[in-house]
Amino acid sequence: MLYSTCMWRTWKIWVGLILAIILIAGIGFFKLGGGAGSIDIEKPKQFIQAEFIDLSRIGSVSKYRSGAGHDYAANGETCRSMKHYFTPITDPTNNWRRNSTNGLPPPPDGKTDIPIYSPVDGKITSVSEEQTPIGKQVWIRSDNAPEYKIRLFHIYLSDGIDSGTRVKAGQQIGVIGAQQGTDIAIEGLAPWTKQAVSYFQVLPDNLFRAYIDRGLKNREDFIISASERDANPLQCNGEQFVRSNSYDESSDEVQLTGYVEPTQ
Q1: Using an 8 Å Cβ cutoff, are 116 and 173 in contact?
Q2: Given this structure, which CATH class describes domain 55-90+105-244?
Q3: What is the pTM of this model?
Q4: Among 54, 67, 142, 186, fewest CB within 10 Å belongs to which?
Q5: Closest Cα partner for 63 from 253, 232, 202?
Q6: What does the angle CA 205 – CA 45 – CA 190 come to, to the nearest 5 degrees?
Q7: Model confidence over 46-89: pLDDT tens digits?
Q8: Confidence category of residue 20, pLDDT binned at 50, 70, 90
Q9: 182-188 vs 196-197, strand pairing mode
Q10: Quick check: 238 and 78 in contact, CB under 8 A?
Q11: How far apart are CA 150 and CA 189, in angstroms?
């Protein structure tokens, strides 16, 4: 009987310790953002506080769910680019592709660079090298919408800007080269699934007016709906899009007023 009582007490102690460990781990998980719930992909919060790029230097923007770049799907969808590529206005007589010796656009020169800004008050949570050696990938978490992360691609960071840096909306955090381009993705933090929304879904009206001034009418101009993409599916080989000769690449992007078609 005494032996059974001791076993029972020991078992209760172990159960209590296990529950305490699970509770502590769960609290830490949520504090680190791993426990963030699902985001509303239909009507997300418009939490962007500042434009992330000098829009006067941009000539075109790829559409959400386009065939631009490479496959970058989320929300259970497949074979589509669920982010936006921003392409600068360039000198049509100076196409870098003709002059490049390594297949890459020229790096920032300190004179003609395009500034990149933090779109929110928040914290840079991660900085990593790009697979293609053009700048770095930067993740920013908003103070006002911590369930989201903003992912910027191919950024040359300013001195003193790195993982862990606190940033303010509109603060310059880096540059891109004048002929380089960059892309932006807005994703959820839920660890069990990849969720994404369009940058233009989370852009408030006061900031979207700059796009209206550049010739656009509404946010939907930048978004291919899921149903439209499903009805006109893209083909993928791994992460790469496979395009037929009849594929219309112009349908992938929105041209802003001032866009200039570069010569080939």
Answers
A1: yes
A2: mainly beta
A3: 0.83
A4: 54
A5: 253
A6: 150
A7: 999 999 999 999 999 999 999 999 999 999 999 999 999 999 99
A8: low
A9: antiparallel
A10: no
A11: 10
